[in-house]
Amino acid sequence: MRILVVEDDRPIRELIEINLQMAGYEVVTAEDGEKAKDIFEKEYLDLILLDVMIPKINGFELISYINKKDIPVIFITAKESVVDRVKGLRLGADDYIVKPFENIELLARIEAVIRRYGKSQEIIRFGNMEINEKQRVVKLNNKIVDMTLKEFELLLLFIKNKNIALSREQILERVWGYDYVGETRTVDIHVQRVREKLNLKDSIKTVFKVGYRFEE
Q1: Are 106 and 19 within 8 A, CB to CB?
Q2: Do 204 and 151 belong to one domain?
Q3: Looking at the structure, do residues 104 and 142 belong to the same domain, yes or no?
Q4: Backbone torsions φ then ψ of 202, nearest 5 degrees
Q5: Which residues pair with 143 in a beta bridge?
């Protein structure tokens, strides 16, 4: 999956680039609207992360050119007003995220937009493991591994957030939902099961006093 990040603030741009690359995306960057326009007119892209307040051609102006290419767009901006959000969505943006934001939130929004456009990977491979996301089937050494729905969703969460430390609370929200009232111990139990079933003891690391991190 190839993503263009259009952001004039260099530290933010580089941080987004690093996080997306760690999650397995191919990333192209641009610091202004003119460079971004040149890139999406000449190169294939799956999605664009677009800051509103950028030099030369701002994000609101730029999206009119992007719409002709039928490339999904997520606005990234410091603008918090409802008017600006509505304007961005009416101009054709698929989503709108306000700075500052956590990387896990950005990745979740990217996944949601990609799914809506039908661009998500159906088969995900990691070492000798194969995951069919659509069929909800996991194979290890070409043999199907019996997994519960929550174990499968937990595995997907780790795979799609490689090298990112996830707190138990974040895992509960993403896998069990915001309204789940159980204990975080549930996460530990399911992580242990996933580790054992898929031989991932060396890949799913415990992060002291935080949660877990899936290391590639």
Answers
A1: yes
A2: yes
A3: no
A4: -90, -10
A5: 140
Element (H, E) at 98: strand 95-98
Q: Provide the domain limits for residue 184.
A: 123-214
Number of domains in the chain: 2
- The one-digit pLDDT tens for each residue of the chain (216 residues) are 789 999 999 999 999 999 898 887 889 999 999 999 999 888 888 899 999 889 999 988 999 888 887 789 999 887 666 777 777 778 888 898 988 888 888 998 998 888 887 765 567 888 889 898 878 899 999 899 999 999 999 999 998 888 889 999 889 888 888 666 667 789 999 999 999 999 999 999 999 989 999 987
SS (H, E, C) 123-153: EEEECCEEEECCCCEEEECCEEECCCHHHHH
The model's pTM is 0.62
Query: Do residues 189 and 173 make contact, with C-beta atoms less than 8 angstroms apart?
Result: no
Place of tokens 């039908």: 118
Domain ends where: 71, 95, 116?
A: 116
